[in-house]
Write a structure and sequence with these properties.
The structure holds 2 protein chains of 2 kinds.
Chain A (H helix, E strand, L loop, with lengths): L3 E4 L2 E5 L4 E7 L6 E6 L6 E6 L5 E4 L2 E5 L5 E6 L8 E9 L2 E4 L3 E6 L1
Parallel strand pairs in A: 2-11
Antiparallel strand pairs in A: 1-3, 3-8, 4-5, 4-9, 6-7, 7-8, 9-10, 9-11
Chain B lengths: L4 E3 L2 E4 L5 E6 L6 E7 L6 E7 L2 E4 L8 E4 L6 E5 L8 E8 L8 E2 L3 E5 L1
Parallel strand pairs in B: 2-11
Antiparallel strand pairs in B: 1-3, 3-8, 4-5, 4-9, 5-6, 7-8, 9-10, 9-11
The chains are: A mainly beta, B mainly beta.
Chain lengths: 109, 114
């Protein structure tokens, strides 16, 4: 059973465009993490969100945690080729992380 | 400071052969994880260690997979015998403590079983 659903599964856009990817669950998260994974490497943590309604910004990336703590979004402004990668969300459950399948993002120059 | 180290980076074997992966976590990290990641999927937890104790191995296929972390530092994951469906990237991660603490990942071992 996939507890975390990420959408879209794949996104290819031109440099300079904006985009949003989503992470949804039927369960309430105690916390949620977003990671980025580049080819041939392990995932790297971008942000952890804990409080319902929380918004965090990391340069051109804006992360939002839903009020009910069951969903999250990642918005990228003016995407650049360096943003290319697999974006994974993971929720904290019983001392382990439950992972989504990821959104594969390609930014074309 | 060195990150999580894994070896080998790539391994190609024939089915029914054994294979082993090694991981050295970040110094001072008590929690160590082994994950399997199939193409286009997120990581799937195989086993979690707290120091030398395996505290969650519910997803480890114990008929062919084994793992150890004898001194609570580095760890080895073994598959014997390997099957075609074991082809995947095997990731090792470590964290200071379990739960919402940031996990630091190694580059993974890409296993191909022919």
């Amino acid at each position: 059973t996939q507890l975390l659903e990420q959408s879209p599964q794949f996104l290819s856009i031109q440099e300079g465009e904006n985009l949003t990817v989503y992470c949804n669950s039927s369960s309430v998260f105690s916390s949620l993490q977003w990671y980025r994974q580049e080819p041939g490497e392990g995932p790297v943590l971008l942000v952890t969100v804990v409080t319902g309604g929380e918004v965090k910004k990391l340069k051109r990336l804006t992360f939002q945690f839903g009020d009910a703590r069951k969903d999250s979004s990642l918005h990228i402004t003016a995407a650049q080729p360096g943003d290319t990668g697999l974006y994974l969300c993971a929720m904290d459950s019983n001392y382990q992380l439950i992972w989504g399948a990821g959104t594969k993002l390609i930014i074309k120059p | 400071e060195a990150g999580v180290v894994q070896s080998p980076r790539y391994k190609i074997i024939e089915k029914k052969q054994p294979v082993a992966f090694w991981c050295n976590p970040i110094s001072g990290h008590n929690t160590l994880y082994w994950y399997r990641q199939n193409l286009g999927q997120g990581p799937e937890l195989l086993i979690r260690y707290e120091n030398e104790e395996a505290v969650d191995d519910s997803q480890l296929p114990k008929d062919r997979f084994s793992a150890e972390r004898l001194k609570g530092v580095d760890s080895t994951l073994k598959i014997q015998p390997a099957e075609l469906g074991d082809s995947a990237v095997y990731l090792c991660a470590s964290s200071f403590a379990p739960g919402r603490n940031e996990q630091f990942f190694g580059p993974g071992t890409r296993l191909t079983v022919l």
